[in-house]
Amino acid sequence: MENHLGDATADVVATPFPVISEWQEAVDIEGVKLFMHSFTDGMASAPLRTSRFTIRPGCGTQEDKHAVREIWFISEGTVDVFYDDGRHPVSAGQAVFFESWKPHFARNNGDVDAQIFSVWWA
């Protein structure tokens, strides 16, 4: 297998590349940080949206319900996800799916910040 990494910086091509920017959205929830992703220009019509959020140990999100379906991918930490009248422990490397209009929220039950990537669509 050839290694092309050495050549990658030698021939930089200045073509448009769809990088999705991230910005921190202000939230009034102790221990929670929310980072939204910006779908602009040619990506504005994408059929989904994404964000990332962190939850400090012992903290949690507020209950949410909405018209869209959603998947959370947990990349760090452990959380208890409250969904469909149950508590579900979820760890890094796992994902959870929420149907439209089903209330859900998470609480960090571990000792490190939980990092969650969210994808939603109609």
List the helices and strands and how they pair.
Layout: H1 5-8, E1 21-25, E2 32-38, E3 49-55, E4 69-76, E5 78-83, E6 86-91, E7 95-98, E8 104-108, E9 114-121
Antiparallel strand pairs: 1-2, 2-3, 3-9, 4-7, 4-9, 5-6, 5-8
What does the model show?
With 122 residues, the chain is mostly beta strands. The protein has a single domain (19-121), classed as Jelly Rolls, CATH 2.60.120. It contains one helix and nine strands; from the N terminus they run H-E-E-E-E-E-E-E-E-E. The protein has one helix at 5-8, and strands at 21-25, 32-38, 49-55, 69-76, 78-83, 86-91, 95-98, 104-108, 114-121. The strands form two sheets. A six-stranded antiparallel β-sheet has the order 1-2-3-9-4-7, with no helix packed on it. Strands 6-5-8 form a three-stranded antiparallel β-sheet, with no helix packed on it. The longest helix has 4 residues, at 5-8. It is globular.
Characteristics of this structure?
122 residues, mainly beta, Jelly Rolls, six-stranded antiparallel beta sheet, Cupin domain-containing protein
On the 0-100 scale, what is the average pLDDT?
A: 91
The number of helical runs is 1
What order do the helices and strands follow?
HEEEEEEEEE
CATH superfamily: Jelly Rolls
What share of the residues does DSSP label as strand, in percent? Answer: over 45%
Number of strands: 9
Order of adjacent strands in the largest pleated sheet = 1-2-3-9-4-7
Structural class: mainly beta
In short:
The protein is mainly beta. Helices cover 3% and strands 46% of the residues.
